[in-house]
């Protein structure tokens, strides 16, 4: 069985609200290859971005 590679998709700044939100969260790093693959299904990319934002930037662990 052969595998298929999903080519990356990097919308230009200002052309995709979802990609722009990901860029804001990522900062200077910009879009990653995972972001590029997820952006083929924008609602999935948006959900993934929201999940990471909640976990990484807004998550609070008890006792920390």
Written overview of the protein:
The protein is mainly alpha-helical. It has three helices and no strands. Helix 1 runs parallel beside helix 3.
User: Care to count the β-strands?
Assistant: 0
Helix-strand category: mainly alpha
What fraction of residues sit in β-strands?
Answer: under 5%
- What overall geometry do the principal axes of the alpha carbons give? globular
- Mean pLDDT comes to 85
Determine the fraction of residues in helical runs and give it as a percent range: 40-55%
Q: How do the SSEs run, as a string of H and E?
A: HHH
**Could you give a short account of the major beta sheet?**
none
Q: Spans of 5+ residues with little confidence (pLDDT < 50)? A: none
User: How large is the radius of gyration?
Assistant: 14 Å
Number of helices: 3
- Termini separation comes to 47 Å
Q: What order do the helices and strands come in, and which of them pair?
A:
Blueprint (H helix, E strand, L loop, with lengths): L16 H10 L6 H6 L3 H16 L7
Helix pairs in contact: 1-3
Question: Which tags fit this structure?
Answer:
mainly alpha, 3 helices, globular, 64 residues
What's a concise summary of this model?
With 64 residues, the protein is mostly helical. It is 50% helix and 0% strand.
